[in-house]
Write a structure and sequence with these properties.
heterotrimer; A mainly alpha; B alpha/beta; C mainly alpha; C: mainly alpha; MetI-like fold
Chain lengths: 214, 291, 226
Amino acid sequence: MIKVLPLYIKAAGFTLLLSAIGIFLSFVVGIAVSLTVYCKVKFFSVVAKIYIEVARNTPLLIQLFFLYFGFSRIGLRMEAYTCAVVGLTFLGGAYMAEAFRSGFESVDVSQKESAQSLGLNFLQVLRFVVFPQGLSVAVPAICANSLFLLKETSVVSAIALADLVYVAKDLIGLHYKTTECLILLVIFYLILLLPISIYMRKLEKKMRFASHGV
Amino acid sequence: MSKISFKAAASLAITLIFALSLGVLSACEKEGEKQQTANTKSSLDVIKERGVLRVAVFADKYPFGYKDSLGQVQGYDVYFAKRLAKELLGDENKIQYEFVDPAGRIPILESDRVDITLANFTITEERKQKVDFALPYLKTAIGIVSPQSALVKSIADLKGKKLLVSKGTTSEDFFRKNHPEVELLAFDQITEGYQALKDGRGAGFAQDNTEVLAWARKNAGFQVGIGDIGTVDGIGAAVKKGNTDLLNFINKTIEKLAAERFFHADFEATLRDAYGADANPEDLVVEGGKI
Amino acid sequence: MYEGIDGIRVIFEGINFQRLMVGLLVTLKIAAVSVAVSIPVGVLFGILMTSRKKWVRLLCYFYLDAIRIIPILVLLFVFYFEITRVFKIQWSGEFVAIIVFSMWGIAEMGDLTRGAIRSLPKHQIESALALGLSENAIHRHIIIPQITRRLIPPSINLITRMIKTTPLVALISVIEILKVGQQIIEYNLYRNSTASFWIYGFIFIVYFLLCYPIAEVSRRLEKRWG
């Protein structure tokens, strides 16, 4: 069991790195897409809406297989790692966009109108009124999405990326020490995910108090 | 503050409970195994009562175990499985197939989901500790198939390159243990390994030579550059550890079938098309369990 | 040998299309049974989560956290490889999938129910208690009727989430649409070079066509009743 520990630690590092990159890029894509929809940019907002629906209504595993095994057959060959990042961002971007959008929409119209009547231009309204309030409303959803994305990375082993599941399955196949390998797998996921989950619970409580205060 | 430490304690408790329960489970299991061997009813009777033989086969390993375009299970392993069902239950169709990945072949026996694993299962010392193997009915070494344009002729050619393997195969095991300098890319499905090879994701694909030879014949531009890595191993049927009745039955059947050269017939029926007219069955087939 | 756009034939060759649809039925069966179990049991679980007894709440949160934190794929592996082996139960991959998905669904549905109950104004329950209603009566006449409407949209959404998670069961050897697709790709590996593009693309579209309408219904209901 001790012998395989370094393998698990390395894999956990990979899972974290992949998640971090995926979550960061999802964040960026999410903001861009949600702004496109929120500001009703011609044509692009329609594309953005279609993107959100397609990404949210298809499974990541299928997206990955399609990217990795499907696209390569029509001449678009991507490394497994690239596929995983693209897949995670494709999926996460849509979820993040929804989180931001509902945050922005929670800002009362009257606030925007008063800001405009005070002479703020469109960008200023976004920057000083919509963004600060909308983002703070979106925080719990963003955290939930991050947790979701970290968990979703468990499927990248299917395209031969050495994450935690890959290592566990590999060791089971080689040494048939099923029990030990699975225990380690569960423990490692708990170590990775518990802190985020606890932080989320705290945050949710805070937000609830905040909303009661109004 | 007290709220936070409560949460932390709670989460710690979850971790511990999980780890402990799995630990306890594995302890229970060892107890259970002891008990089970103490009072077994003949496993053959259990199968006869059920009226169907449950066999784990591959669904994606042409020409040993695969599904054709009509969804029918075919192949060398399947041909043998049918004969076993006929000998045991009097009807070659009284089989319930379960489909496995290479890495799932032992767990599926351990969890009693099937009676026999007949999935191109190479007999190794490590595996013998987990399951019981019957006599071999085929022999193999490891081969590496690679593109003709960049043919892998020796293991030294692989330095600094990626080698594709399937998880839980003898090929993976061999390279992990003897050639840690070769970087491996391991896939769940054998199919995925081949496709990755076609997509140029690795310098070559290491698999049983029995299989890569067949594959290279059907795929222009690919060739088996080395076909005899490691030792020549037997491929055999496996049953759950301690299932002696079924094991003896399979062994006796294999010995009996030698007289009618059953596995040569199996070769002609299922492998000939894959290996071509000039292939010699003696290179692969094992009769009566004698390699 | 088919090349390029011609490769799309692979979907309709032989009985391939039929096989894919049979695989899809397996997918749908797993999702449907799990949802059917999750919704009623999950609502009960949610009511338990609001229990006044602290140890009951604590147990419920343990369960919720454990299920939520561990990825479904890992749960599937633990159940498929381990639990069945240890307890000597012969569950098929399909049954394991239904068990794991139901466990997950119960946790999610429970949390939704808890949220809905918590959102009810406290004074309603306090007045009911003051009027001398029993806890059961409060649940039956005050809480359940009010939360039902609120729970319908997320319950429908849970169906799409279940469906979207089903491809994972291919990794524990359940022959559903993805696995059937892989078998077809394998058989066509040297006859149709673009088979995997078309098959995976087809499955991608099938999932979208299944999930999008359900998600849309859920959203509309939420808007109307929200």
